[in-house]
Amino acid sequence: NAGVTQTPKFQVLKTGQSMTLQCAQDMNHEYMSWYRQDPGMGLRLIHYSVGAGITDQGEVPNGYNVSRSTTEDFPLRLLSAAPSQTSVYFCASRLSRRSGANVLTFGAGSRLTVL
Amino acid sequence: AQKVTQAQTEISVVEKEDVTLDCVYETRDTTYYLFWYKQPPSGELVFLIRRNSFDEQNEISGRYSWNFQKSTSSFNFTITASQVVDSAVYFCALSESGYSTLTFGKGTMLLVSP
């Protein structure tokens, strides 16, 4: 099992460019989510999905779009990158959408720099 | 709303010292789950433990132990006889029952020097 796979691992963008961070899981997990990690801020939830076709906003959703067309994939889109979006991004999934007890499995992270 | 506070931003100890990382949480739910994750310098997030709100037994796993106290809304993590390999950022996190997201504290960076 690959678990949660994120691509790319590193990306440098210029202000105003768009890009998509890819996230795929092969564990048939219902729930998927995106976090960003900034120094001194911990991990903050951007968007999450409780199943194909269902997404919702987290704590810091502005500037990001998501969609969930399949159970396996949950891409994060930056439509017009800003320097404030420089961060490390983590995708995470868990088995059940209904249970907060399930452990989140994280991808390896994607480091994004916006110049 | 759920909230997790890790007041210690950074802790420095010398190898073999014991160290306790504090975690205080807030929730209105009676059923909730507390987690600790470790993030070593390599950057990945590693699950350490989950505790549900109905189980206040302390847990020990090797040099690691966790003290859950509902009366003070705390879920503290102690490393006994710390080692250099314990150097990492440690995150405490909380989720509630049902359709709940996982809320993290800001993390505590632990530096263990030889």
Structure, described:
The complex is a heterodimer of chains A (115) and B (114). By secondary structure, chain A is an all-beta fold. Chain A has strands spanning 4-7, 10-13, 19-25, 31-38, 42-51, 54-57, 64-66, 76-78, 87-94, 105-106, 110-114. In chain A, the strands form two sheets. In chain A, strands 2, 4, 5, 6, 9, 10 and 11 form a seven-stranded mixed β-sheet that branches. A four-stranded antiparallel β-sheet of chain A has the order 1-3-8-7, with no helix packed on it. In chain A, a hairpin with a 2-residue loop joins strand 5 and strand 6 (54-57). The model of chain A has no long low-confidence stretch (mean pLDDT 94). In chain B, 0% of the residues lie in helices and 54% in strands. In chain B, a hairpin with a 2-residue loop joins strand 7 (59-61) and strand 8 (64-69). In chain B, strands 2, 5, 6, 10, 11 and 12 form a six-stranded mixed β-sheet that branches. A four-stranded antiparallel β-sheet of chain B has the order 3-9-8-7, with no helix packed on it. Chain B has strands at residues 3-5, 10-14, 19-21, 24-26, 32-39, 46-52, 59-61, 64-69, 74-79, 88-96, 103-104, 108-113. Chain B is mostly beta strands. The chains are: A mainly beta (115), B mainly beta (114).
Major sheet details of chain A: 7 strands, mixed
Query: How does the major sheet of chain B shape up?
Result: 6 strands, mixed
* Oligomeric form: heterodimer
The SSE order of chain B reads: EEEEEEEEEEEE
Order of helices and strands of chain A: EEEEEEEEEEE
Number of strands of chain A: 11
Mean pLDDT of chain A: 94
Q: Are there runs of chain A of 5+ residues with pLDDT below 50, and where?
A: none
Strand pairing plus helix content of chain A: what structural class? mainly beta
Strand content of chain A: over 45%
| Percentage beta strand of chain B | over 45%
User: What is the rounded Rg of chain A?
Assistant: 13 Å
Low-pLDDT sequence parts of chain B:
none
Helix content of chain B: under 10%
Count of helical segments of chain A? 0
Which pair of chains has the greatest number of interface residues, and how are they split between the two chains?
A: A-B, 25 and 25 residues
Any idea what the shape of chain A is?
A: globular
Nearest-angstrom radius of gyration of chain B?
14 Å
Structural class of chain B: mainly beta
Distance between the termini of chain B: 41 Å
Q: Helix coverage percent of residues of chain A?
A: under 10%
